[in-house]
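Margin note from the TA: students keep mixing up input and output lines. Inputs are the sequences; the output is the structure of the whole complex. Example:
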Amino acid sequence: MIGKSLVSINDYTKDEYLKILDLAAKYEKQPKQTILQGYVVATLFYEPSTRTRLSFESAVNQLGGKIIGFSDTGTTSVTKGETLRDTIKIVSNYSDLIVIRHPLEGSARFASEVASVPVVNAGDGANQHPTQTLLDMYSIRKTQGTLDGLNIFMVGDLKYGRTVHSLLMAMSQFKTTFHFISPEELKMPDKYKQHLNDLGLKYHEHKDFTDIISEADILYMTRVQKERFSDPIEYEKVKNVYILKNHMLENTKDSLKVLHPFPRVNEITEDVDENTKAYYFTQALNGVYTRQAIVTSILDLN
Amino acid sequence: MKDRKQLSVSAIKDGTVIDHIPVKSLFKVIAILGLDHIENMMTFGTNLESKKLGLKGIMKLSEVFFKEEDLNRIALVAPDAKVNIIRDYEVVEKRLVEIPEKVEGIVKCVNPVCITNNEDIRTKFELVSRNPVGLKCHYCEKITDANNMVIISSS
């Protein structure tokens, strides 16, 4: 992965993921180092993202690196009509690595082709967000001790949720059993189910969010967004069905952990936050260590 | 039937004949091969009777020869096309076309929020299924299939 851009979760092999996760564990023990001293990382955020940007910037800052970039295109030449191609070529001259978030799909792949430095995709529209997937995997392995043979329950918007799709693709390399809990309108797309069929992996689909979660090792919650429904009545019917409340965790495994990629609106009630099974805040913190591992691996500093 | 064919389109001495083009694809084939930009003598026929296709298009291109990879590009819109290479009024070679594994710069990505539809970028696809045709965008990773395939005309 040295010098290699990270655009899609499919760009790295299973061994490469595992190496990143091992390294992230090292950074978790010692997140403050000077390994990035003298390095400049550009963070180009063409659309807002609080967590992803801050966690990249925190990751780099804690290792002694410097950040340049923008979090809003309003103050940049983009408003004058500068192309992505030109911006990337120019920023390549100013930095050792580029982190990009852009609303257009495929923009990060394109950036990686025109940049003279490695590019890390921090989200290109609804397409890919590989660093989120790696931090999800890190959180799963850390809490379960393994990535193999787990029961992963995905809840909510499984149709449009890019994080669940990428996580499914990555975890399908680890003998995972998947459970999909979603309203009819937001079911896991066929192409992902076909992918699991091809690999001989088991999956189960459920409409009701009930005590079936007693078997879960990981409960991966996502937001059911109103704008995804063509029929507002359908949304009203299901909007309160896919909400995790504290009492629902009573008969679940002791080792169960609840993950959520954030932002959360109301799909996990706040009384769950105090439950030891709630892991989403730590999951967000793990994003810093995972991104430290990704940036330093690509720059070959370990 | 045979007489009628000879009446419709005259023979050429040297060049390329492309037969069995679906009628709706004739102009797409012209665009893909860039025939609207060359000055050779060419005959295009359309709505000709065909046992196989019902109606078909045909083109006879005098003194025009193609590389195999260039001809294969038309397989996206004319998968059953038959190509005859003519030398001195004789057919010296017959070819079928095959969709290439990598398709570049011919097809527009179906995804409106793909970067290739928003900046001046040459499209690139990987062939993921042959029948029906499925092309995966190298950039946004979405599939463009036969039903929503738009050919980019060459400039």
